[in-house]
Specification:
Length: about 250
């Protein structure tokens, strides 16, 4: 247990030494929320297309949370694990009391902590600066955040399992991340999507995750379909990652 704690602390320090990672997963979502909320007048006005709510109330905070978790899961986490495998770190660890699995646990723990911190800062600053309501269904929001994070982290671990080297996983991560963000409603709100596209979004992890976040922020129970989609992606991608992951 002591070794695991020290490993988590060491990996956390290494993460904080990467300015790009800190920026894209924590500072960028917060900056986007505040800048758009303060500079675009339409974001602070009720929109009939969004059920009469302001875009800044639920749509944009939910998307910023989605952006942070998805970037961590699909880009940062697999890139780090593949780099360690490529440099032989995982192989060398297998000959020491610190097993490679401990590093995997440390990386997931750090990613989860960063996701929670980024979410808390986004919601807190959004509330203080833009008067964004706190999630009205807090327990549901917390559960959705957990399930959605597990789903996306499972996909990231699968990418780390199949990518042969760091360059490939970086390109693959970007190729997967941007379509997932689009289908999650990042650039085109799901309410404005054509019906066929919204159906596709419903069965993608980011579409289900983003909508469930919006629902719980607005005080509504998330759709059972969306919860099932998230659980299904977590199960399928998690099993695939476990079977295909290579330590060297």
């Amino acid at each position: 247990m002591l070794i695991q704690k020290k490993l988590i602390l060491t990996e956390a320090k290494l993460f904080l030494r990467e300015p790009a990672a800190v920026f894209f997963v924590t500072l960028l979502p917060i900056a986007l929320l505040l800048v758009l909320g303060l500079s675009v007048p339409g974001f602070s006005k009720p929109d009939p297309a969004l059920g009469g709510e302001r875009p800044i109330d639920a749509q944009f905070p939910a998307m910023m949370v989605l952006l942070s978790v998805a970037t961590l899961a699909v880009s940062a986490l697999p890139a780090t694990l593949v780099m360690y495998r490529e440099k032989g770190v995982l192989r060398r660890m297998s000959t020491t009391p610190v097993r490679p699995g401990a590093l995997l646990v440390a990386q997931i723990a750090i990613s989860a902590a960063v996701a929670v911190l980024s979410t808390a800062l986004t919601l807190t600053l959004g509330h203080l600066v833009l008067d964004v309501p706190v999630p009205r269904l807090l327990a549901g929001f917390t559960g959705v955040l957990l399930l959605g994070s597990v789903s996306l982290f499972s996909i990231g671990l699968w990418l780390a399992a199949v990518a042969p080297n760091a360059k490939v996983v970086q390109g693959a991560g970007a190729a997967v991340l941007f379509p997932l963000l689009f289908l999650g409603g990042m650039w085109l709100p799901r309410d404005l999507m054509p019906s066929p596209l919204r159906v596709v979004s419903d069965f993608m992890p980011t579409g289900a995750f983003g909508q469930a976040l919006r629902d719980t922020m607005g005080g509504h129970a998330p759709s059972l379909t969306h919860l099932a989609v998230l659980a299904g992606w977590a199960l399928i991608a998690g099993i695939a990652a476990a079977r295909m992951f290579r330590w060297e």
